[in-house]
Amino acid sequence: MEKPVMGIAEALADVPDGATVLVGGFGGAGSPIELVHALIDQGARDLTVVNNNAGNGDVGLAALIRERRVRKMICSFPRSANPKAFTELYLKGEIELEVVPQGTLAERIRAGGAGIPAFYTPASVGTPLAEGKEVRTFDGRDYVMEHWIRADYALVKAETADRAGNLLYNMSARNFGPVMCMAAQTTVVQVRNVVEPGAIDPEAVVTPGIFVDRIVQVADPAQEELLFAEGAVYP
Amino acid sequence: MSTETVTRLSRAQMAWRAAQDIADGTYANLGIGIPEQVAQFVPEGRQVTYHTENGVLGFGERPPQGEEDYDLVNAGKKPVTLLPGASFFHHADSFAMIRGGHIDVAILGAFQVAPNGDLANWRAGDDAVPAVGGAMDLVVGAKSVWVITSHVTRTGEHKLIERCTYPLTGVGVVSRIFTDVAVIHVQDGRFVLKEMVPGMTVERLQEMTGAPLATEGKIGTLCPPAVG
Q1: Would the CB atoms of A128 and B168 count as touching at under 8 Å?
Q2: Using the 8-state DSSP alphabet, how is residue B90 labeled?
Q3: Closest CB from B95, B136, B141 relative to A129
Q4: A1, A72, B113, B192: most buried, per Cβ within 10 A?
Q5: What integer pLDDT is reported at residue A127 of this predicted model?
Q6: Active-site annotation of B, residues
Q7: pLDDT of residue B124
Q8: Which residue of chain B is at minimal alpha-carbon distance from A223?
């Protein structure tokens, strides 16, 4: 099935206030910065955002947070070279934080995409992050129950899409992309290249097109780390 | 306590010492900070494959200046290069490697370590922003968990202590500790002193350690080459 290749504003036009949004990327690698900037322009508020981090400097996710559009962050590591947007609001009690071990975060998203409402992991057993959660013993070892994460939207950066939505990524920019594509009602991917079906070897497909709903072509995407180094500010 | 007659290891020397214990054929995950430097010091002839939890197996050195690609980074978000045989994978697969017991050793930093193997390395107080990253997954998933840390804090407080007072990262997980003055194994609920720097005495090291130090046989000399 062919997936629509849309303009960036059109692709995010229906994001409502209060939406849960998965945002791909590990630091700047795989950060869909053009999509996040388009979400800032679009205006949706009161968002719950899931990302490994909580933004850096004054662009991308940090700018979305600074504009007070995020009610809650779910992440593993809300630190970076300059996490001031998140840190300021957090220390004032003006943004919620759910801190999740990184592997648990990835697996909760994967489980959401795979239709598994909860699972047991050994990570965090005996630590404050397991408090209040069910612990069960399997084969003599304790595991904590964690719930899936499912979202309204996923914003993911990939390298190449064919019109069937099959995706290739660029090196470690892949990170959360494949699991986030699976776990949202509407998955919007920004890609450098859009090619015809058949142009990607089926053996090489990383994310099958069934997990992709909308394609936005950003032929020359910004790299968050480089924008940060320049001291860029958005908007 | 006075330690002026003792030479402490540099950060690079601590990394060098930990690297000597990595066996041939190891899949290793190196934490942010001093553990990252371990990759530079693996002894000649040993094959070690490095895993970084953001989704790369088989990465190599930092690229030359001007050739950095921020789509190819390690867990500390620093640019790396690829070695022949490298692979990319998504986060859920990466943590399947960790949690599933496929990583042989994880080397991390520490705020506190206790003789029961408990590790605290993610949150020092209630006022800071909590940030755990992949540490909780690594300590329960890797077959061995080693720590590289200064033996005491900058203000001289114990980091190797009877019971961790900071929030735990993992329970009973650490098996070796490489400090700037000693190598200590965590065995059967005890700190077992294996090596210490020249000029150090067991008595003085005990003062620097917040839990009893056991000894078994000869204590080796911790004397790495001048590396860095």
Answers
A1: yes
A2: -
A3: B136
A4: B113
A5: 97
A6: 53
A7: 84
A8: B70
Q: Is the peptide bond before A235 cis (omega within 30 degrees of 0)?
A: yes
Tens digits of residue pLDDT in B25-59: 999 999 988 998 998 898 999 999 999 999 999 99
Sign of the four-CA dihedral A192, A30, A74, A112: positive
Q: Quick check: B92 and A27 CB within 8 A?
A: no
* Structure-block tokens of residue B150: 């200064």
pLDDT (0 to 100) of residue B4: 58
Residue A19: CB atoms within 10 Å: 20
The candidate with the shortest Cα–Cα distance to A169, out of B27, B98, B56, B83, is B56
Q: Which residue of B has its CA nearest to A74?
A: B131
Tell how many helices (H) and how many strands (E) occur in chain B.
4, 12
How far apart are alpha carbons B109 and B32 in whole angstroms?
Answer: 8
**Token code pair at residue B218:** 């000869």
Chain A residues near residue B114 by CB distance under 8 angstroms: none
A121 and B CB contact within 8 Å: yes
Q: What angle do CA A45, A179, B133 make, to 5 degrees?
A: 80
ipTM of the modeled complex: 0.97
Phi first, then psi, for residue B27 (nearest 5°) are: -100, 120
